[in-house]
Amino acid sequence: MEELMAKNTSRAKFVKKERLERAWSQTQLATIAEVNLRTIQRLEKDGAASFETLMGIAQAFEIDVKELNMISSKSVQKANSSPQKQVHFMPRLVSGKNLSDVVVGADQFQVEHDEAQDPRAIGAMKDILELLKQDIVRLYDADPVARLQVESEMTQEIQGLEQYGFYLFGIKRTIPRIIEQNETQITMCTLFMSHAHSPKIIRDKKLNMIMPAALSEVARQ
Q: In terms of domains, do 111 and 206 share one?
């Protein structure tokens, strides 16, 4: 039987806050953290949990388990006020037009993905990245007709990715970049290739698929 750590109301509030910021239900968090629903309900009620549960929660939130294991009211306040990461809602990109709107004008790129076992899915991921390397340059100088052609090619690659069970999500935002203590503003493009049935995927009020993600608010080099 797993040993539960002492009750901790600060931990309970922290877990609930992080879950709600991602627009996850308790059931979604339980699925992502690979624990049962009653465990999440107990954790959010009084903060009691085993270390194994905290490990799963930390992985779901993409944080260090120490933040949950040694949490206090002071650390919750620090987490609430920290500007380093913020949860953004990345919409699903279903066409080349969607993708070009996100990548064109970006100064820097981040690409993340869920683990893939199927070699065909891995190949589709590589194809989309290779195409992007070529098309980012082509899109900057493209006339309207050439841009339509590039976007058509992108659409085909996205459809190929979806054929093997992955969706593409993305967002473009402006954040500060710090180089040797000098700060400038850059446009960051973040793309995420997710399993189509990932429990992290939610739907907005218009039933569009979106992917909540905690993204860094500062780019360092």
A: yes
